[in-house]
User: Fold this.
Amino acid sequence: ALISYVDTERRYRFINEEYVKWFGEQARQLIGTKIEDVVGIQAYELVRPYLDRAFAGELVTYEIEMPYHQGHRHINAKYVPDIDDNGTVRGFVALVVDISNEVRAQEKIRMQALVLDNMNEGVCLIDEEGIILYTNPAEDSIFGYEPGELIGKHISVQAAYPAADSAQIFQDIFDRLRAEGSWSGEFHNVQ
Assistant:
């Protein structure tokens, strides 16, 4: 995480070593440099409203995609005002964390969910006891269930086999999953 202290002239008065990793060796010379000269005008204009709030004495937290000179990063930033005994803001401490990997992971999950929710094949996720944790819309539609109606029920509610046969079939499937990590075959369901 980047940690810095910025004064009321919007100049860096302290930076931690992480700045070198983000901005290169020239970051070692940042003390006394204005924020806009470090992050670039475009990035500076994006954060200016947050800076203004911090200089007004407000604790500020935000997430934003920043177009730094070195490339785009999604960040989570927190500005903690440094206020003297008279209530005058002297500057603020900034804590900036790169959350780019988390944002990419969330986007990947969102896209996977979109595919899962819009595919024509039914998908049913169960736990080790056979309890249904998730069904996609196609699964519900194919078998005539309302969205979420199967959640919390045992997978056998969909089985087209007598109860004794279903129990043995599910046991065989679970045993294979535990031993080999996958199962492939046909299973007949009913509405």
